[in-house]
User: What shape does this take?
Amino acid sequence: MHRRAMALGLVRRAVRLGLWFATASCSLLPTRGSEENPTARRVKVDHPGLPLSTLSEAELDRFKQGDALFEATIRDSDGLGPLYVRDACAACHVGDGRGPGLVTKVVPIGSDATASAALLPFGTTERPYTSAGAKVPLLMPQNPSLRRESRLPPAVFGRGYLEAIADRDIERFARISQGRQGSARGRLNRLKDGRIGRFGIKARLANLRDFAADALNGDMGVTSPLRPEEPAGPEGLRDDDKPGVDFTLEQVELLGDYLRSLQIPERGESEHFGLALFESAECGLCHVPSITTSADYPLKALSGVKAEVYTDLLLHDMGSALADGVTEDGAGPRDFRTAPLIGLRFLPRLLHDGRAATVEDAILAHAGDDSEAKDSVAKFRSLSPTERSSLLKFVEQL
Assistant: This one.
């Protein structure tokens, strides 16, 4: 009994530290038979934050280093600020998920972009905290023509699968969507440098290295060789308590390696009836259930595998009801990249601003007359109560 209790204690501690692989076999726990010949049995760990189970020792080491950076509180002496939103990656992405931190955007109530630029000379993002001698935070001006928009952070688990999808597949989805009947269309976001955007709610970032560098800079005021300038502010401070570039390229790369090595939280067996209803309601036109990743993706654990991501990575016009007033790198106020439904069951709120408390709320919010999803919502509403319940249960377990 003592050996069994000790083994269980080790397992629980490993789970708490995020070091136990969902796909690992555990030989510490003996079966009811003889302890002389214990039989290993599968241990299911239903939580996010675990690394891919097939990483090499070197890849796992980089994952751990990146994990430490992700959890670390950035201090003034590390280059925090002068203006910032949060002081750690994990402050926004607790458990590699969504929240409790959020970003607030300031946007014009009308559509006068010229007036907006004059009112918001330092951009649309509020940065409410100061460091390194700054005294004036960046907050919304008192002006009746402006409003504040909330943005919940994305979950970050499973994002390596999104990066591993080949450009040609995203381009294929875009071609198919343009020839499709009905309201659902979609387009890829071709960035100025020719790459395809796939990260961020408006698909404005092409890969996880850029995603990490952009978050460091925009949310924490941490510069790197990829983002060497501090975000502008009202006091004109362009440096902080760490002169020059704050993070090295290697530190940014470690964060990128951590993000791309996070596993999709382990799911139970999908209910086939629920999946069939998901497809019949045309949810899968945009939330594509699975895509096979590129065979030549550099991280072997993610090359040529079935990625159950539930997205086409395209931008869709979601109509005026969901519009956030923000224009970013080729995406307008009504344009949003199809949200990946990876680990949806771990997300406390849904949609870009958290307005939806339930999956049904999120579905019905897509129903505007000018939304590309209106046909799908109409099909959802036409289901019987039993069918609707089965579809919702399926999505809620993703």
User: Anything to note?
Assistant: The chain is about 30% helix and 10% strand. The radius of gyration is 23 Å.
